[in-house]
Amino acid sequence: MRQQPSILEYRRGRYLKLALLLTAAVIAVYAWHEPPVVYVKPYGGTWLGYTLGTLGALLILWLMLLGIRKRRYRSSLGTVQGWTSAHVYLGVSLIVIVTLHSGFEFGWNVHTLAYVLMVLVVASGLVGVYAYLHYPTLMTKNLGDDTLEATLLKLGDLDRKCRRIALDLPDEVNAIVNKATRSSARHAPLGGTLRRQLAGERVRCPTREACAALIAMGAGYTGEQAKINGQLVSAMTRKSVLIDRVRRDLRYRALMEVWLYAHVPLSFALLAALIAHVVAVFYFW
Amino acid sequence: MQILVTTLSDGPKATVHRDQRRLTGTAFAVGRGTQCQIHLPDARVALVHARISLTDAGALIEASPHRVVHNDREVEGAKLAVGDVVEVGPYVLIVEPPPAGIALALSVRVSKRVSTKGSMALYRVLMRASRASKRRLSYIAFFGVLGLALLAPIASDLFEGQTMRALGAGVIQVWNPGPLARSHANFAHECRSCHQMPFIQVRDDACLACHAQVREHVPKGDAHGLVAMVLDESRCAGCHRDHKGRAMTPRAQQLCTDCHGAVRHADMPRATDFAADHPKFRVPRIERSGLKFNHTLHLDPAGVRAPREKRTVLGCESCHRPERDGARMAPMTMEKHCSECHALAFDPQVTRRQVPHGPVKEVETMLREFYARLVLGDIPPDVKPPRDLPRVRPGAAPTSEERRAAMQVADERAQRALRDLMQTRAVCSTCHHVSRSGAEWKVAEVKVTRAWMPRSTFPHAKHATHGCLSCHDVRGSRRAEDVAMPDIARCRECHAGVAETPGKVASDCATCHRFHGGKGPWHTARRGRS
Predict the structure, then answer these.
(1) Chain A interface, mutation test: which of B42, B114, B116, B126, most A Cβ atoms within 10 Å?
(2) Could you tell me the pLDDT band of residue B132, with boundaries at 50, 70 and 90?
(3) Which one of A250, A261, A275 has the shortest CB-CB distance to B132?
(4) Neighboring chain B residues of A224 at a CB cutoff of 8 Å
(5) What digits encode the pLDDT tens for the residues B4-58?
(6) Do B149 and A197 make contact, defined as CB atoms within 8 angstroms?
(7) What is the pLDDT of residues A219-252, one digit of tens each?
(8) How high is the pLDDT of residue B169?
(9) What mean pLDDT do residues B299-327 have?
(10) Of A30, B333, B336, B485, which is the most buried if we count CB atoms within 10 A?
(11) Residue of A190, A275, A280 with shortest CB distance to B125
């Protein structure tokens, strides 16, 4: 099966070319432009400054529209893939445009606040690009042919199986198995808080502990008991492998999601700072 | 070869539904994919989970890379014998005794030992909705920033009052794009002192409220046409930009040459750079000061005759002293600079007294009073009255006839003394041009040029390292009409244009000129001194 081109390769990098062209043009005009001599320092209020500022503001508004466009399933205004591709490239070119608009002048004020927020939004967006390019491959590799749902069903089966096998073994083994199978849900839920999700398989896992305990106990068994314990260890180990796989999957899913918790609120903060910046500049013109 | 597959499923009322199929071939796929001959639809089964193949040696099941449970043992493959139980995911495959003509008989049913549903609930899935939602965070971020960065400053600007002012002074600073010039910094929190109206550019009125003394570049009425229009439309802020953190007076040459490189006017030649393109200095050829003065005589290296010493050697600084600001030369006066040598004695045989240095009328009055007093017999001790002077006898009351005669004598003496000063002894006319019309003596008005180049500034103090003569060469000058001003070539020996030139001082327009005429001492109108 031919692999889908990623958003970065959309239409053979159509928007990469567009963004490069835009950036090059902006840099060229900035280099050519000679600000009027009355400005003892660089300044966003020259004709080029206003042009770059307007361009940057319009770009920010358009970039934020992606949040609306991706929810309009019936819209035929380009594809969401194309929008996202353009969103990424033009978003990065915003750094250049806005930096030149600032004329490299920064201070402790709303104007620089807007700039810093813009940089943070773009940076968090780049984290997102990395996540979208990197984690789906890892997720496929992690789960293989299985789906998350199938793996969970298998886990359920293994739990029953472990409990069934343990019936023929001493009480302490039963206690261990019960703790590892029944209480998984209560004490060590898969997923859970964001921190647990991001921790992945690095959480304290009752199943893993049960495996170790069963192997230790099994050393003292002989004959039929040893054989049954062997089966139990085998099932429990398999469960441990699957459970780690699920946790890893959830970790990838969380990583693909978590950057948006910075990207989206920061971009709204940026919108507010942008409005404040524009109003402040013309309020006290 | 054929195999028989019997699928058992739960029917209604604890009955079992049997579905038998015969399959022909030697290899059969087992899996959840619909292409598999033995189709086991469940998520726990792989797409193609295993293959059952018929060989001469018997039936085999191969699952690699997956696994099946064969008689309770997890294996990648196994040989199938009658009675074997194979578990694939939730399914149980049992090898039955085959009927005649059939190579392998399998019964397939769903295991009672595995869950068919509800496992998801067991592992309460998964991403428990975190309390943080992007939407809520976005609202907080948006309105938080909007409130602090926009609404609070506007509120502090619009609503006055003590509290608001105290709060607002800090809040509005978040809008400040940069520190103010030093002289404006003390009212930095009063945005409205310059930005009088919201959304309207800073107006000149705001600047002129304090800078009332600033003069126009060209006085109103002196400019016409396009020039007047351009000057009219120029704002203070066109050149003076604050919030840039330093002095707000730009001195870039381009500010001048934008206009002065284009202006064509007889009175205002083009100028774009001091070294390359600057009109010649327009200094009068001769000075009409109304005085007589011989520099050579005064600067005689052997000295001039002086009343107390035998000879005094004079230098430039004996008369020309810079004013306290170091810019211009202080004006010279008769009393300070000349009178020590040039005494105004009017009748040396009679008295050492001198006439005042002033208008002819004053001198005349003083002389008449002096002689009248002598004629009336009132002789001061420092006066030796002339022998030929007719005098009224002291102590006797003179008749009006005698008085008139005495006054006439006094007047005649006074007139004679005046003629002596003006003409015969040439006391006044040593320095002044004196003429006579009828009975009246006239002294030419004195108009010494104070500033030869009134449109430029020239700080003498800064040029003190060079001798006076290097610019003002008065050697050989014998007339007051001689002008000893340097020409532009002399200035260019040291001063280059804006371009850095080795060994020269880079000079732009503002080195010598001021935009707001009239501020510096050189811009007071050209005025003569009486």
Answers:
(1) B126
(2) low
(3) A261
(4) none
(5) 999 988 877 778 888 899 999 999 999 988 889 999 888 788 888 999 999 888 8
(6) no
(7) 888 888 888 888 889 889 988 998 899 889 888 9
(8) 64
(9) 86
(10) A30
(11) A190
What per-residue confidence (pLDDT) applies to A59?
Answer: 95
Q: Could you give the angle at the alpha carbon of B142 between the alpha carbons of B138 and B147, nearest 5°?
A: 150
Quote the Cα angle for B304-B308-B310, to 5°.
Answer: 45
Residue A163 in contact with partner chain B when CB distance is under 8 A: no
Q: Give the residue, B516 or B495, on which the prediction is more confident.
A: B495
Query: Least CA distance to B124: which residue of chain A?
Result: A185
Q: Residue B213 CB: number of other CB atoms within 10 A?
A: 9
Q: What is the pTM of this model?
A: 0.75
| Rounded average pLDDT over B394-422 | 86
- The chain-wide mean pLDDT, for chain B, equals 84
Q: What is the DSSP letter of B510?
A: H
For residue B454, give every residue at least 6 positions away whose Cβ sits within 8 Å of its Cβ, in sequence order, or none: B522, B523, B524, B525, B526
Rounded Cα distance, A254 and B127, in Å: 8
Contact check, Cβ <8 Å, B175/A109 = yes
Would you say residue B116 has pLDDT above 60?
no
Residue B487 CB neighbour total at 10 angstroms: 11
In this structure, are strands B91-96 and B104-110 parallel, antiparallel, or unpaired? antiparallel
Report the alpha-carbon distance of residue B84 to residue B156 in Å, rounded: 87
- Confidence band of B490 (pLDDT split at 50, 70, 90): very high
Q: B125–A39: do the CB atoms touch at under 8 Å? A: no
Task: Categorize the per-residue pLDDT at B488 as very low, low, confident or very high, splitting at 50, 70 and 90.
Answer: very high
Q: What distances in angstroms separate CA A204 from CA A183, A185, A201, A244, B119, one per listed residue?
A: 13, 13, 8, 11, 21
Alpha-carbon gap, residue A22 to A14, rounded angstroms: 12
Residues of B in contact with A191 (CB under 8 A): 125-128
For residues B106 and B4, is the Cβ–Cβ distance under 8 A?
Answer: yes
Find the CB nearest B250 among A38, A147, A150. A38
Size of interface A-B (CB pairs under 8 A): 184
| Residues of chain B contacting A39 with CB distance shorter than 8 Å | 241, 244
In the stretch 55-114 of chain A, residues with CB closer than 8 A to chain B read 105, 107-111, 113
CA distances from A164 to A158, A167, A177, A223, B274 (A): 10, 5, 10, 19, 104
Question: CB contact, 8 Å: B112 with chain A?
Answer: no
Interchain CB contact of B129 with A (< 8 Å): no
